[in-house]
Specification:
By secondary structure, the chain is mainly α. Helices cover about 85% and strands about 0% of the residues.
Length: about 250
């Protein structure tokens, strides 16, 4: 612990840039996590509500409903597809593909280049500081040896070699979590793109069925009066059959 303390206090001009990079990197990762959370949408909950709005209010009502959502799929992808619905299914697919390529995917990759850049730079900066510190240490050892310094002075300068390696260690301490986070973010983006493709295909199917027959989205249930009449007819059927048998006997 004394060595770490000596590095941060005695070699503060090396430690400060690396600590700042670590803090910035942690902030970027947390920011990206929050963006991922706001970009996602639970489609199992969204689609039933969307179908109901599409059936009752039509395409314009569905567009307004999607604009009120916070996820990228309804707010960006579905709005682009619904706005091109009057031109046919092919136009919907083109519109959603363009929206995904130019708007959604760039948003998903936001902050990933800086995260990866800091991960690479932190390692090289730590190594650079280590090399500079070791050059200074070896120069001091050489001067002490030529000047007839005691063995104690030479050993004190030699101990700084281990202290110089803390710069490399701190750079790796910053870079390793960033590389791991970058890989996880890329994997999440891949899953999200597959989710977008499935959602786009589902939207085209829903709109096509709506244009053919809006009732296909949600088959209407029989009205209460109709159900009461059917139940009454089923209950009255045995009585009518009994009446016919009595009439034949008479």
């Amino acid at each position: 612990m004394n060595a770490v303390y000596n590095f941060f206090i005695g070699e503060w001009y090396f430690a400060t840039p690396l600590v700042l990079m670590s803090l910035v990197a942690a902030s970027l990762v947390i920011w990206r996590l929050l963006l991922n959370r706001t970009a996602a949408t639970d489609m199992d909950d969204f689609l039933p509500a969307f179908q109901d709005v599409l059936r009752r209010k039509g395409i314009k009502g569905a567009v307004e409903f999607c604009k009120q959502e916070h996820g990228l799929i309804p707010q960006r992808l579905y709005v682009a597809g619904l706005e091109a619905a009057d031109q046919g299914a092919a136009a919907m697919r083109r519109s959603m593909a363009t929206e995904a390529e130019l708007e959604v995917v760039p948003r998903l990759h936001f902050l990933l280049p800086p995260i990866l850049a800091i991960a690479k730079i932190a390692t090289m900066v730590g190594l650079l500081f280590t090399v500079i510190s070791m050059i200074n240490t070896f120069s001091a050892i050489g001067e002490a040896s030529q000047g007839g310094g005691s063995k104690q002075n030479v050993s004190e300068h030699s101990s700084k070699i281990g202290l110089a390696l803390f710069a490399t260690a701190l750079g790796l301490f910053t870079a390793i979590p960033l590389v791991f986070s970058h890989v996880l973010f890329k994997e999440w983006i891949g899953h999200f793109e597959n989710k977008m493709k499935a959602a786009a295909a589902k939207l085209v199917t829903l709109v096509t069925n709506f244009k053919k027959d809006p009732s296909l989205l949600d088959p209407p249930k029989p009205a209460k009066a109709d159900r009461d009449e059917d139940e009454y007819a089923e209950e009255d059927e045995p009585r009518r059959a009994g009446g016919r048998r009595e009439a034949r006997r008479g």
